[in-house]
Design goal:
139 residues, Trefoil (Acidic Fibroblast Growth Factor, subunit A), six-stranded antiparallel β-barrel, 43% strand
Length: 139
């Protein structure tokens, strides 16, 4: 089942933590970390997901495209000319639930993950199941 274009909320499979940009960021135009948000009270980050026609997707959060830094961390790039690795595969894994997906690089080689024990941990490229929820699914 392919994901339809739309606005989503992303949560981790282990713990159901929200994934997004931290609500406290510096004011520079440098890329912003994509992190797990463990605390209660965060506004649910919105993810704008659009298919690009080759089975891959472009993903935005906070109005910025998401890509990967050379160190393997997932970031939102405020300046489009700085974006690296910005196409993603979003693969449904129905054996883990209706809203369970794995996000991998466009070539399928590495996917998103995080370290569960760390607060506001930056997402890195490995493999992690993520839940995608449409706005109508989120209360």
């Amino acid at each position: 089942m392919s994901l339809k274009d739309g606005i989503y909320t992303i949560t981790t499979s282990s713990g159901g933590h929200l994934v997004g940009r931290h609500w406290v960021e510096d004011k520079s135009l440098l890329p912003k970390r994509v992190v797990t948000l463990h605390s209660v009270g965060y506004t649910q980050p919105k993810w704008d997901v659009h298919a690009v026609g080759n089975g891959n997707y472009k993903i935005k959060t906070g109005g910025s495209y998401v890509g990967v830094m050379p160190d393997g961390h997932v970031f939102a790039f405020l300046l489009e000319d700085m974006i690296q690795g910005s196409e993603w595969k979003i693969q449904h894994v129905p054996q883990h639930g209706d809203n369970a997906y794995i996000i991998t690089k466009g070539d399928g080689s590495e996917g998103w993950t995080y370290k569960d024990k760390d607060r506001s941990q930056a997402c890195r490229l490995f493999t992690e199941l993520l839940g995608f929820h449409t706005d109508s699914d989120v209360v």
